[in-house]
Amino acid sequence: MTNWPSHIIKQLRGINPFDGDCLPSRVPLLGFGRPSLPFPHLFNYKEPLKIFESFYNGSENQDGPEKHNRSLYCAGMAPVLLTRDPAVIKAMLAATGDKPEQFDRDTSPTAGIARLTGQDSLLYANGSLWKRQKRQSAQPFSRSNLFEPVKFQGFELTFRDTVRERLNELRSYYKINDTKVAKVYLEPEIKIVMLEMLVNNFFGAHVSNEEIKERYVPALDFLIDHIIIDTVSPKIHKFCGFLTGQNKILKKSKGDFEELTDIALSGRSEGTGLWRNFESSATNDALRSNIKVFLAGAMEATTSFASWTLSHLSRRQDIQDQIYEEIRDMDDYTPENLRKATVLNRVLEETLRLTPALYFLPRYATQDTWIETNDKRRMLIPEGTHIRLDVWHANRCEDFWGERVTGYPADQFEPKRWEFLADKGIEAKDMLHFGFGHGPRFCPGRSLGLLEVALVVAAVVKIFKFTALNERTEPKAGISTKPADQVMVQVQLREPFEHPVME
Fold first, then answer.
1. Residues forming beta bridges with residue 493, ordered by sequence position
2. CA distance 122 to 105
3. How many Å is the maximal CA-CA distance in the chain?
4. For 178-211, how does the pLDDT look when each residue is reduced to its tens digit (9 = 90+)?
5. Are 391 and 360 within 8 A, CB to CB?
6. What are phi and psi for residue 330, nearest 5 degrees?
7. What CA–CA distances, in Å, run from 38 to 41, 53, 143, 265, 307?
């Protein structure tokens, strides 16, 4: 438990609680000219990227580690450390675990998720409980399991069938033909595809597209919005929900979510979908929290990933055409064939870098802990420190991802930067963008997410040409980041004849 009186005394005496040769600079609680106050409250909780940005206010006049490592230490609070230094982020992620000298995942930003899904999950649990959860739940997501040739072929075909049916429905709904164009919001369509793939293809259920579209996606959308404010101000949120009638919608949405979880779990006894590859003695009740996190979190994260990819491509017709040439004659979407789609893979890497769904990673110091970066810089993190590893701003910082390092400005979408790095002998694993985390708590759904998004993006590019209707798209951040305009595009058929989405 944080020693509040001790923090007050140290703050009054002006003591810097950090130590080492990589010291963060202190951020004042109040100030002028900032995009936001440097902490969440009822009036700014929907703009977390601005909260993080406020930490770097004035840092352009600084040099050294204090430019990228910033701390808030005042008002009796425990220290808060925000860092956009990739080396520091990597060191902290690698030092996360259940040993005394390692960092826990800070659960405070996910309190609302835990109240909705349960605390006994890979997302929320720490220490030995997290290790047990990982052993129970991570196996079906492993690359070796997903991409085993015999298993993968059937899995990939069912994915393609789902994507083909949904995109053909989209084409019919908007009456898109060879000569006409239509204005479409792609993100809502992607959510439906992603949830259907999870429920029917991954878990082997049989839920109609209409029910997913009309019932389960709206329920999850409502609950994901609820999670955010329930984390920031749960008591006020509950009272306001009573006054506005939102609590009734919340109750119904929770009921729909429970039913969807029951549907996902029901295939376990019959060995449907990837349940047939799942070996565990854990009961369904023990797995329930993880299934709920997976349904909501995987839909949210993969929707973010695919939406951002299509949003970026909507402003780059040249890259759309290059991807089309790579996949137009591809009849078998094996991992090997997908790896050969060089432009598509670089687009996915660049999307994860510039617009990561997981825009920050929270950690917590359970005791005074030293970290050391690969270049031998050291920092003492005091006990009780809340750590925010700011992936979003790290990946957009010119010092780490700009022209000098990657050949292109850091804040621009440019897949060729990965070609530039490759020519210098630098691989993606050497330039970490932390799109799926890093270290012991990296996202176990990485392989599945990459497969889903690659299939969806390839399908859209194969059948449609699409162009952004807005000059630029701002990010909207909550549980994940998404394009604020819901990927509003103008679409038309790519070929002047009827042809399936995927052969």
1. 464
2. 11
3. 75
4. 667 788 999 999 999 999 999 998 899 999 999 9
5. yes
6. -80, 115
7. 10, 8, 39, 41, 29
